[in-house]
Design the sequence.
């Protein structure tokens, strides 16, 4: 049976969470639901470890102490997320807490990375217990957000309301699917934007428009790092097994305008297209991606790279 993409994504998150000890207090029953329905129906009961991709209100009530819980929220690439807490019944003085985070945190790594996010790390947290009324709501800068919570008392809990808002210039996106297409545009802003795909994939760049063109060839990163990074406007391809782009391996740099097909394979748990902009130009990169399949990948030696991470 084919596993739905969101189920695969949740399983990936569970795997990383278990490595960092989060699963110690997680109720196994929260993982038994078919998360493929998340996009077409409302699920009103929130688990200790859960993933949401739809708008609505979700209530968590502790049946026993829950000491390390997390809710991952994801929207479409062109959306940001609004979170609001209500009906909160926790004891902050006893060590309970609810914290909302602008992005995702996994295994100590943040997405977007500190290098790519417009806010400092401490500003990305909204702590219900240490804040006044402002601590009951939060808005993300990208299509993912997260809620951490610890609750000791039985029958204590809260309600989380999720709303999605349109984002005209998406930046720092987590893909819900192992295949699709996207265009990142950065209009005269000095900002770095990443498109993260938590799958080993084949990426095809179909268009790249940068402020300054260097050369019309795709070169492995190890040969061109100084040239592209020095230009101030470039695209880099990254691979790794975490979510923080600053900890990932550079596969290739592209600091030229491209019209046509350039293809590469990144056989890692996480594959990233990252657009670096100086703010002096309107930069644009369009690409397609699909799950890596060694048997069916087209052969294009002049535009291809060898697999970077191992794929079993």
Sequence:
């Amino acid at each position: 049976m084919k596993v739905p993409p969101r189920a695969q994504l949740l399983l990936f998150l569970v795997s990383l969470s278990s490595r960092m000890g989060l699963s110690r207090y997680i109720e196994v029953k929260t993982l038994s639901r078919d998360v493929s329905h998340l996009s077409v129906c409302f699920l009103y009961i929130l688990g200790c470890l859960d993933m949401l991709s739809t708008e609505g209100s979700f209530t968590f009530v502790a049946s026993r102490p829950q000491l390390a819980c997390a809710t991952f929220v994801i929207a479409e690439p062109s959306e940001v997320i609004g979170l609001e807490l209500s009906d909160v019944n926790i004891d902050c003085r006893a060590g309970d807490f609810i914290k909302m985070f602008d992005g995702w945190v996994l295994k100590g790594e943040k997405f977007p990375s500190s290098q790519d996010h417009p806010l400092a790390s401490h500003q990305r947290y909204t702590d219900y217990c240490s804040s006044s009324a402002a601590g009951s709501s939060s808005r993300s800068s990208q299509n993912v957000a997260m809620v951490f919570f610890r609750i000791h008392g039985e029958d204590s809990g809260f309600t989380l309301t999720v709303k999605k808002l349109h984002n005209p210039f998406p930046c720092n996106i987590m893909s819900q699917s192992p295949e699709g297409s996207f265009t990142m545009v950065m209009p005269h802003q000095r900002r770095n934007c990443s498109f993260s795909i938590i799958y080993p994939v084949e990426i095809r760049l179909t268009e790249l428009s940068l402020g300054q063109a260097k050369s019309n060839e795709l070169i492995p990163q190890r040969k061109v790092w100084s040239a592209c990074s020095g230009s101030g406007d470039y695209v880099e391809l990254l691979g790794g097994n975490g979510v923080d782009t600053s900890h990932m391996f550079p596969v290739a740099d592209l600091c030229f305008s491209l019209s046509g097909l350039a293809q590469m394979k990144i056989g890692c748990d996480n594959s990233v297209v990252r657009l670096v902009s100086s703010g002096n130009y309107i930069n644009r990169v369009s690409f397609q991606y699909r799950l890596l399949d060694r048997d069916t990948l087209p052969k294009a030696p002049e535009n291809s790279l060898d697999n970077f991470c191992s794929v079993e």
Summary: Residues 93 and 241 are 38 Å apart (CA to CA). Confidence is low (pLDDT under 50) at residues 18-41, 213-226, 300-307. The longest strand covers residues 79-89.
